[in-house]
Amino acid sequence: MAPAPSSTSSAITLNINGEKHHLPIDHRTTLLDALRERLDLTGTKKGCDQGQCGACTVLVDQRRVVSCLSLAVAAEGREITTIEGVAEGDELHPVQQAFLDLDGYQCGYCTPGQICSAIAVIEEHAAGWPSAVTDDPAPEAGPPPLTPEEIRERMSGNLCRCGAYVSIVQAVARAAEEHAAEKHTAKEASA
Amino acid sequence: MREFGYQCADDVTGAVTLLAADPDARYLGGGTNLVDLMKAGVERPGLLVDVRELPLGRIEPTADGGLRIGATVTNSDLAVHPEVRRHYPALTQALLAGASGQLRNMATVGGNLLQRTRCGYFTDLSQPCNKRNPGSGCPAVAGEHHNHAVLGASDHCVAVHPSDMGVALTAFDAVVSYESADGPGEIPITDFYLPVGDSPHRETALPPGALITHVTLPAAPVARSRYRKVRERASYAFAIGSVAAALTVEDGRVREARLALGAVASRPWRARAAEAVLTGAPADGATFAAAADAELAAARPLPHNGYKVTLMRNLVVSVLTELAGEDAR
Predict the structure, then answer these.
(1) A52 and A113 share a domain?
(2) How many CB atoms within 10 Å of residue B206?
């Protein structure tokens, strides 16, 4: 085991959106504060700062997490994706485009977290994960259709104080349909 | 927040040795509860030993048909594991009813068992709390306690354990394995949490500095099981009452029943009195109500949480009725 336990800071390397960032960091720094205050990646938002609102959602090793309860020092060696890293150059991520087209926001503060969470929701559903509102969790029952009820449950970790939920659910549903259609096309092309 | 050292442990013995050498050290799993409590000043560790890289991240079948779950398996990975979904559906349902997708991706099995109560007085440093500051008093008894315990509490503490997962594990008779400076050990989950008594600050039977390494599920007793949770909003909230139940019905009679209640006590509450009424009795509404009443006869509600007794009675009857209906099909 490497460094001396007495030290309260470390020199770490964070891999964010495919880019390596070297920085000395006080161990008390959350991943959220490291992103916003140290690396100028202010797309990730601070809402409650206690894991109750989801505004700070980012992807770590392709899984959605809240960055306010993640310590930056413990994120070293992991692949971090923030809202700044989801588009392909000038082409928006399909979830971003769906939020834009369907007005999946009002003030926009919770939107980066909503979008990062929705990207993961679509992948989790495609991988066959059940949710708390899925009737039968047995794998034999197959993946549940991504109904508005399923979307609302799966997105319940992201609060929107403006109450834009109706269009958020529509945006997630459209992006999920596109994702499924794309997978279907890719499958046919390879067949 | 107090400054702290950080070490990422790469073997179990090393992690346990670090904790044994430093009473100010804590294990860091997903951090969803510990980091929050550190921000609030309730936890003030001098050293965090990160256990997520330890080789405790697997779910494996046991020789007797059960499952051995590593302590660092995330709540998400346990919930969606095919064998858990197939044979322990109440566990999948309990896990998926807890927190949010983000938090379930972070939270570990070991950490879930060791999470602290969400009693508002426990996290408010301006208030007395016997759990946080032994002997200082419990303002909840005469204060805000609408979501506090109705079973097994004492005048010293009426806080509830917040875990959903633990309630299902309790119904399934899980066993907690740990490693400590004095060697390894095992504790049945029904003995894992200590009675409140006059020492609510002592929460588990784990030796000081011990690291939970695995949770083992015995072979599933019955195919039918269910977890149902009641809360103040539809999702992403702690329970005000929950039930994990497993039921086998043969020729109209209950052959075997497992029942555990959540959000009613300082620990997931195994309902042995109810199980005794159920076993061998006709699988009907009258039996289910008698079973619930037998368990809740010991309830000691406070002025603002009496609703929980009615809620739990109805919840037990409803879940058992559903399970009996499924079994009859």
Answers:
(1) no
(2) 18
Cβ under 8 Å to A: B residues 87-106: 89, 92-93, 96-97, 99-103, 105-106
- pTM across the whole model: 0.97
* Within-domain flag for B233: yes
Q: How many Å apart are CA B75 and CA B56, to the nearest integer?
A: 14
Determine contact: B231 vs chain A, CB below 8 A: no
Task: Write out pLDDT tens, residues A128-148.
Answer: 999 999 999 999 988 899 999
Domain CATH number, residue A29: 3.10.20.30
From residue B79, give the alpha-carbon distance in Å to each of A4, B203, B287. 37, 26, 31
Percentage, residues of chain A above pLDDT 90 = 90
Among A24, A57, A85, the domain boundary falls at A85
Q: Is B118 touching A (CB cutoff 8 A)?
A: no
Decide if B282 is inside a domain.
Answer: yes
Tokens found for residue A12: 């770490």
User: What are the pLDDT digits (tens) for B115-169?
Assistant: 999 999 999 999 999 999 999 999 999 999 999 999 999 999 999 999 999 999 9
Taking CB atoms and an 8 Å limit, are B35 and A70 in contact across chains?
yes
CB contact under 8 A, B6 and A28: no
Segments of chain B scoring below 70 in pLDDT? 222-223, 327-329
Go through chain A and tell me how many residues it has: 191
User: In a mutagenesis test of the B interface, which of A30, A63, A133, A151 is the best target, namely the one with the most B β-carbons within 10 Å?
Assistant: A63
Closest C-alpha to A12, from A80, A65, A64, A69: A80
- For residue B38, the model assigns a pLDDT of 98
Retrieve residue B249's tokens.
């019905």
Tell me, yes or no, if B44 comes closer than 8 A to chain A by beta carbon: no
Among the partner-chain residues B9, B82, B102, the one whose CB lies closest to the CB of A1 is: B9
Residues A81, A101 share a domain:
no
